[in-house]
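User: Structure please.
Assistant: Input sequence and predicted structure:
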Amino acid sequence: MFAPVYFDHNATTPADPAVVDAMLPYLSLQCGNASSRHEYGRAARRAIDEARSKVAAALGAHASEVVFTSGGSEANNLLLKGAAGCLKPGLLAVSAIEHPCVLRPAEQLRKRGWTLHKLTVDADGRVDAANFQAVMAAQPRIVSVMLANNETGVIQDVEALAALARAAGACFHTDAVQAVGKIAVDFRRLNAAGVQALSLSAHKIGGPKGAAALVLDKRLDIEPLIAGGGHERGLRSGTENVAAIVGFGVACELAVARLATTAARLLALRGRLERGLQGLGATLFGQAVERLPNTVYFAFPELDGETLVGQLDRAGYAVASGAACSSANPEPSHVLQAMGVAPELARAAVRISLGGSNTVDEVDAFLATLQATVRRLQQLTAMAV
């Protein structure tokens, strides 16, 4: 069976075997609803409580601060819309490079009377300090800035930004979906700086799809998106996905235990990959600032990113394009546009996101394949001119 080399871990990760093993009983024999009062239900409740403690411990949080959701998108929506539901409409500030699951609900709130400001970033993808301070002077009610970007891997100084937001009286949230498991994330430290809510997701760290969490300062009031049976302290009603939540807990435990060794190994692989890309004449984005150890975002001028991704897929390498495309209307990455990258170069962007199972041999073989692919496409482009 054909199995391409997987270089798209920022999109999702393979479930760790230990995670799968922990989940299996709750997909069959352990069938209880955690709200039921019999032994099956009590066993499910104990499993959820244990998983909640594991997720909290991985982040230096308290178990009572963890609200389980179905995904990072729901967690981000829950915070933005939930916090807005407890406040009078005012100024909402989000960075221009946020994931769509922050940008889209922010746009929805704008239609409901909120004033939306998209915080600008510099050419490296870092939030512009002068713009941020100017917006804080206008006393926003809610601020959301992601800890690490899903495309570039660029890491924000969230502690410093949150401190300014707290001084302005704003609720500060960070989308940490891409950061957890790749860099150390300490909610207690972030909370002390002014971060009141943080989102994370299981399937980015070797866990299952369908489980995520919003870590929430209990002093912050939010309205639930889903009302019903009062699950998750009334903040997220719906019968819990016990198996996925159990897997989430194990994935968090493993991610923390392996963080130091995995990060060092990924950083070495990333350096090898980037040196090879530079030798081939690629443009690298966000290279001058601190980034996730696994993420490389690059482009070859005049080569379409979607075309290159397709060619690499056929050659046996799963990577991602930087563009959000439809067949009729390709659009360059909003992240790169916010960084001031020219649209034609942004359309050429390709992202590689490494994982713990990737090897030096895979990186070297990829670079050789990429060189041949790029030369062939450049020749075809020259012939078409």
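Residues 83 and 159 are 20 Å apart (CA to CA).
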